[in-house]
Amino acid sequence: MHVKKLLVIAAAIAGVLLYKKVQESEARKSDWSKATDKVG
Asked: Which stretches in the chain have pLDDT values below 70?
């Protein structure tokens, strides 16, 4: 039973970290496109 709980917790943490990473890369992409739009 404890193993199941640990797996659920680990999956939740991994999901949160993955979500944050995706949000970060999306923010970087939009910043990059803004920066390059001004040049063009």
From this structure: 39-40
The residue assigned the tokens 């995706």 is 22
The two tokens of residue 37 are 């739009």
Q: Kindly report the pTM of this predicted structure.
A: 0.62
Residue 4 neighbours by CB distance under 10 Å: 8
Q: Alpha-carbon distance 11 to 7, whole Å?
A: 6
Count Cβ neighbours within 10 Å for each residue of 10-40 and write b for 16 or more, e otherwise: eeeeeeeeeeeeeeeeeeeeeeeeeeeeeee
